[in-house]
């Protein structure tokens, strides 16, 4: 059941044709552990159960790894292939040949027992990266409950098997496996409804409306070019009319007093100055001699 627990995960990988966020390390390490346990079982008597279960494990884990490599991205595919070659081929044969030629009898079994114990602990510790991701993302999407449950249950059974067989190499690592399996199940129950609660909370929140919709920008008057042109034309016409009136009045007064007309400088000054008309009215009230003096001085 431990080996079959990830089957829904790989069915999902096949369906979606993507490995998504799943890791291959647990399956590669599990395959390596099954291979080492088979080798260890051949050195012991009455170890049929170790041989059968780990032989099944080799077949199913090889199938999982093959599916994973088939649907993984290129860079992850290369990394997984390198890991399989270095651990399951090179690593296994290094251990098998070294213990076969460097140790004999009970010593060989003892060395392999300790190697199997360390590897079994590694198998149980392999999901730690997934547990870390669950805590960080608060999502149990990539940590199936079935695998955690059967892992803890299997650890209990194999612990008692090793205890009754007086095989410390089988019993001891399953204590750690039971603890880690329980931790995974606790994390699963803590975070299994987190995303649903978050989604429900987001649905309850009021829908925010853009401030541009609630408080539209008032219609500000646009700059009208035609209006500016008309204003300029009116100002120009008014100025021209004013200039004509001033010239006419000055011409009449010049004829009356017998003096020369006011030159262009005087007219320009009177037109540009805003109080030109008022000054002209004052000039009319002055004496004739004074008017002549002003005109001559301005000239």
What does this structure look like?
By secondary structure, this protein is an all-alpha fold. The chain folds into 2 domains: 198 residues, Up-down Bundle (Monooxygenase), CATH 1.20.1280; 71 residues, no CATH class. 78% of the residues lie in helices and 0% in strands. α2 runs parallel beside α4 and α7 packs antiparallel against α8. The longest helix is centred in the C-terminal third of the chain and has 33 residues. The C terminus is likely disordered.
Topology readout:
Layout: H1 7-16, H2 25-41, H3 48-71, H4 74-102, H5 105-125, H6 128-137, H7 145-164, H8 168-191, H9 194-204, H10 211-214, H11 225-257, H12 264-272, H13 276-285, H14 288-298
Helix pairs in contact: 1-3, 2-3, 2-4, 2-5, 3-4, 5-8, 6-8, 7-8, 12-13
Features:
single chain; 299 residues; Monooxygenase; 2 domains; disordered C terminus
Order of helices and strands: HHHHHHHHHHHHHH
In percent, how much strand structure appears in the residues?
under 5%
- Find the structural class using helix and strand composition: mainly alpha
Helicity, as a percent range: over 70%
Radius of gyration computed on alpha carbons: 50 Å
Mean pLDDT: 75
Residue runs with pLDDT of under 50 for 5 or more positions:
207-212, 257-274, 287-299
Distance between the termini: 120 Å
- Biggest pleated-sheet summary: none
CATH topology group of the largest domain: Monooxygenase
CATH architecture of the largest domain: Up-down Bundle
Concise summary:
This is Bidirectional sugar transporter SWEET. With 299 residues, this protein is mainly α. Helix content is 78%, strand content 0%.
